[in-house]
Structure prediction request, 327 residues.
Amino acid sequence: MKKTLAALGLVAVAALALAGCTDSGAAPETTGSADAGGDLTSVRVAALPIAETGALWAAIDAGIFEEHGLEVDIVPAQGGAQAIPALLSGDIDFAIGQPMGPIRADLQDLGVVIFSNYASSLAEGSDVNSVVALGDSGISSTADLAGKRVSVNSIGAAGDLTVRKAVDDAGGDSSTIEFIEVPFPDVQAQLEAGNIDAGWVPDPFRGLIVSAGGVDVVSPYQATIPGLTVLTNFTTQEKLADDPELVAAYAAAMTEALAYATANEDAVRAAIVTNLDIPEAAAAAITLPDFTPDLANAGIEDLAALAVEYGYIDAEPDFATLIQPQS
Prediction:
């Protein structure tokens, strides 16, 4: 396993803060609940501290996972790729993240499986993420990003890939962009410090920057692959083989959780306020994604093809092994 993790080239187990550091929306690490009528199975799930995770937080608060016999312990992550070493080592059971990490893992035969979608971007209107800049940056169009320092939370993933495609389509030269890895919560401070010229961020960070006088430059998902998945659910082939009942229970709970989030936006926004510690007014202004387990229209194949076109990967993955719907 050590050789496998080294081949993947990721050192993000520490970044996941796996030594007992859980998200404030996570259930306590003890298992069992008298109200649930018996012991619960504890599962550790890596998730980003962003607005989209509001669906998971709200579903936990609503008791949906308990109804399926599960107690969810959320482990903060910076991106989907950073969660993969923890999955492979067994430190976590499931991850919610961008699909580029699993795509690369499949190409290395690491046995990572996307079993459900989680949230997709919006094909039209205001989207769930965008590249933003300060009002005095001189950046007002997509092509203006050429030659600039642009942050993403995880280099080599869907963020910088779709930004590059959007800039090229707008007549700019994306090869001149310097991408810098910055966690989403730190983007505003890095912009104000002059360390980056623009940043790719989801809500609530996008909304906070724009409301403070920033410029919403481009929504790269919408500009390149409208409706592209924002986050997927993934685990390992080993977990599927060794504990299919657990995977089935989690997938069923997740499907119910996403349906609950779609029908109860107020609960999602309330969970965002609590877990991200932002004002209710900021949460109310957040553009929520399409919470869905559906992988049929997630755009993963299109993303992989774009990654090949831009040299992010040498070949497309084996989608039959990478994508195995369980919902």
The two ends are 29 Å apart (CA to CA). Residues 244-263 form the longest helix (20 residues). The longest strand covers residues 112-120. The CA atoms of residues 238 and 244 lie 10 Å apart.
